[in-house]
Design a protein that fits this description.
single chain; 193 residues; mainly alpha; RNA_pol_sigma_r2; RNA_pol_sigma_r3/r4-like; RNA_pol_sigma70_r2; sigma factor; transcription regulation
Length: 193
Amino acid sequence: MAKKDVPPRWDRKMQQRLARGEAAALGELYDRFASLVHGLAHRVLGDERAADGITREVFIHVWEHPDSYDPRQGPLRTWVATLTHRLAVQRLRATETAALAREGSGTTEELEHRVRRASVAARADYIAQSMPVPLRSALERAYFQRRDYRQTAADLGITEDEARRRLRLGLQLLSTAHDTEAPGAPPGYGGAV
């Protein structure tokens, strides 16, 4: 395995500790990723209680099936996010399908459109949270503060060319939210909705 293909040491060690059944490892993993998991689930489902349920399901799955994570496939963070995304989309589909059957209003196409929209929004959130701070800072200034690249450059103390580069790269990363794979997931993790 090439140097760049070696998974982060923390990811490998965490997977090994979970496989040995170390409860402290699960607590450490929860502390590190609970806000990510809950945030993604809430973004897809739009419901605090449902997001709490998905958060529990994700960590139960990780505890019961630690070997389903393969460090060679990518970062543990991406695997956890992909699992969260998949479970949240399944829950949204089930909930919306039940509501459609009960109320009889709406179509399956509308249901799929709502699921797709929620899924893309969750992926965009994950991508934004995961991108390097310099890119995220430039995008936040441009989007939330309505700054152009010149103002962004001045705010960040960088050249205008660097500000344009950061904004372009950040937007390119965000544009991948429409892809059918889960946020940043390697093809082997199969995060399609």
